[in-house]
Amino acid sequence: MPAGFVRLADVDPSIRQDIRYAGRENFLHRKADGYDAPVCVLTERAAEALSIVQRALTAKGLTLVVFDCYRPARAVADMGEWTRQGGPPDPQWYPTVKRGDLIAKGYVGELSSHSRGSTVDLAVAEANKKGAAHPGCGAPDTITLDFGTGFDCFDPMSETAHRPLPAKAAANRQMLVAAMRAAGFRNYAREWWHFTLRDEPFAKQRFDFPITAP
User: Fold this and answer.
1) For residues 156 and 135, what is the distance between their CA atoms, to the nearest angstrom?
2) Active-site residue among 81, 126, 191, 200?
3) Cβ(121)–Cβ(67) under 8 Å?
4) The model's pTM
5) pLDDT at residue 133 is higher than 80
């Protein structure tokens, strides 16, 4: 890894990792290019800030669950090429949008802040339970609190402030945004799970090294 990057587990092993693009349970239905291990890699600054969030949540009997962290530029290109192959909506991941429209609709980016190393996709779960959320849209079996949708639900329901939303899901979104903001992260308004460190160290640089196991 380049200088300034770390594996999250080396900074805070208590944060759960469920790296979706290293397997098949994602909108591609296969591994993304560059994800050679289910490991969260981040800039050291972002990992340390995430650990601050984790300590605050641990005091409440909760834990972070990360789905995606640093994303190699080759994976971003892989996702873009996949969308251009076209296809019908997918009821699990993009129920109302055709595959070929995912970029135009803003659900898949030609470039991604994840490739800068300080962006993370995550949710919150109870620390001592597996959770009971089985969302109709997005990543299934995420063992998280109820956020109204799963991770990577490409639908307006995933907008952080979307209404109507069940009261518990809305409260969980607000709780997550507040916890992340307190540690210096800003939320992407179209995805409740997506956060970028405000003071990111590589704001104008994208990386393409593969994600590997230690």
Assistant:
1) 15
2) 191
3) yes
4) 0.95
5) no
